[in-house]
Amino acid sequence: MEPEDNAAGPVIGDEEIHANGRDESDSQRHRPIISGEQLDIEAYAALYTGRTKTTRLLFIADKCGAPSMELEALRMAYDEIKKGEDTQLFREVVGKINGRLGPNYGLDDAWADAVDRRAESRKDKLENELNAYRTNLIKESIRMGYNDFGDFFYAHGRLGEAFKNYVRTRDYCTTSKHIIHMCLNAILVSIEMGQFTHVTSYVGKAEQAVDGLDPVTIAKLRCAAGLSHLEGKKYKLAARKFLEVGPELGNNYTEIIAPQDVATYGTLCALASFDRSELKSKVIDNTNFRNFLELVPEIRELINDFYTSHYASCLEYLGNLKTNLLLDIHLHDHVETLYEQIRNKALIQYTLPFVSVDLNMMANAFNTSVTGLEKELEALITNDQIQARIDSHNKILYARHADQRNGTFQRALQTGNEFDRELRAMLLRANLIKHDYNLKAPRKY
Amino acid sequence: MNLSMSSVESLVAQIHGLSSNIGELTQLRNYLKQCDDLLRTESTRLAPLLTELDPSVHSLGYLYILEACTSAPISKDQANKLVLSVARFINVCAAEQIRLAPEKFISICKRLMLQVMLLEDPMRGVAPLLTSIRKLQSSTEQLTTLHPDFMLLCLLSKCYKIGLSVLEDDIFEVDLPRDLFLYCYYGGMICIGQKQFRKALELLHNVVTAPMPIISAIAVEAYKKYILVSLIHLGQFATSFPKYTSSAAQRNLKNFSQSYLELVNSYSTGKVSEVEKCVEIYKDTFGSDNNLGLVKQVVSSMYKRNIQRLTQTYLTLSLQDIANTVQLNSPKEAEMHVLQMIQEGDIYATINQKDGMVRFLEDPEQYKTCEMIERLDFSIQRIMRLSKKLTTMNEVMSCDPSYLGKVGKERQRFDYDDFYTVPSKFTI
Known about the structure:
heterodimer; A: 445 residues; B: 428 residues; mainly alpha; cytoplasm (chain A); PCI_dom (chain A)
């Protein structure tokens, strides 16, 4: 999703790990930091097909904030919709364009009416056919009939009904291939509708039909599962799923996701949630995933920098990518959280190997001020993510390891006290209850 | 019916004669019970009888007569005399004898307390009541009806230390629940006065979670103080009741303490300004409950807690930064607070005035000293004693016929593994 462009920095080979973040004056590494160029909408849109193309273009138009980009996106959306049959979406786009693109991009009522009329007649035809099949009770035909209905509704933007029809084919599926076909359709519509619980359940169903699964389908299912985890904020699971997607995916799933997206989502989620060993084994050493990473060189640089502790450049890459990432429909809501988690991880990882850290050098390494850094570290220490204490006078961070022995004594004494208290209270209460009982049951023996 | 001199003489003779051992004392008691009405009608004429009896030897008889004497309403100047005589009696009486007639003893003690309050000199009653408690108790684990009165007197006369010494005893036997509630409530207040918040929390907890079919005003007031002490001591308050709290309490206590729960909410924000705002709003409620002092302590405990949190994150910190984080007005104020906390032992730190820095230190306790070993040992012994107590109580209850009756009915009829000698149908 970053610009489909050609600026890839020189491949960074084996670097010596700097103890204290990067050295500004180091002339050996000349890395042109790509300033996140504005998203090339045409190239971006070319990655996708089908309904998602339009949805994404509309989303960009909504969120980009720059009128030129907005109009560009809307224009492309208009063209795309005209190729399809969704009149509802058409009217929406026209409303958004609001005449700014000239008379060619206005409300073409004639076209819309023609499409609607065609739709009506097609719908009647499909209904008749379906009824015929139903009376004949030929499973395969009924299945095809419902499927066609589903396709029809999907093309016309009536997603709820499309979903219902796709699901209805389930009773008429005879082979695993049918089931998988149904599941894939259901998944497609659910993602468009944003109902990711359905996505998870249908992925599960599809994975059970083992004999129908070929590598492409498996890759597709994994992508879908990853997306639903991402929406559910389960970043670790999402990362795992995306990283398992095989290179067979290629351009076979462009109606939902592009391979660049797989790389981006997978990497960001992995960075935010994996620990170091998992990061190395599942991302950096993952040969399959390398194919995806080649498509997005900035992300590849990002990961390498993080792993080799060049935090400043890593965070710089992230910062540059941010604007473009915010235009992605799936990632939009999660960018902030993921970024925060990655930054925290970087801070924690930086301090981990040291007994004492000079806050000034650390602030340089992270390109921030000492006071700001102090505040961030304070938050991390309070959440018990870093075991250290800050010497605010000398601006040093000291690692602090709790004394196990003292802690154990303290806990033992405390437990003893609590037990003592609870037991006494309990005996007292038992006595009170006995007293009560004696009062209520004067029947003595 | 007129009490003739002869019957009076015979009364005194009886007392003299039957005061040597427990068998005779029981006989004496029955006799005295029969004479009770007579004594009551002749209460005004009984005073000279007292001179013929020795309170330490003839305690039981003396008690009856004294009780009858004092049952009549008296004037204020006579109150003094009464207080003296009762106090003297309490000091010298024989404990085993008075335990045979506890209601009488309790009633004269209560009268003593009443008079002492009327004379507006509660301190006079503290020592006598302490002695009376010790004599009336069959063991230090028993709570008598006099305990709450004693606590009240301690509170009114501000003799907190004596009250604390009585609170040291663990109570396991209770005659009347109401006594326990009052005792714990007053005891809690004494502990608060002495800043022993842990014990106060324990006592108030006992009141709030005690089994009670309907809630009483004592429980409501105790709950309010419980919330405040919990905030001061623990820095938080768990609004959910433990499982063993009575359902009446769980349902109703919160309704009466809305303003306090609001205070809890504002406290959990961690900002002093929030808490002060809340206090301003509910000042009247707190005032009418006489809890304003406690509420002020809650506010100051907020500063303490915030500073304590800083010790977890920082090794050294400037006074200016402390003032900023904890929302104090100046570094001087921060210095004052930190100084006070160091003196009270809440934190370990050193203040460097030249640089305006505070250095936080670790708890110097190394758990290596003999005192610590002794403390651990003492704790272990104590818990072993308590556990033994629990086991005995369990055994006693398993032999209790009413318990067995209830369990027996629900037991299965055919049990091949065990052969119970208790018949399955248990009728008493």
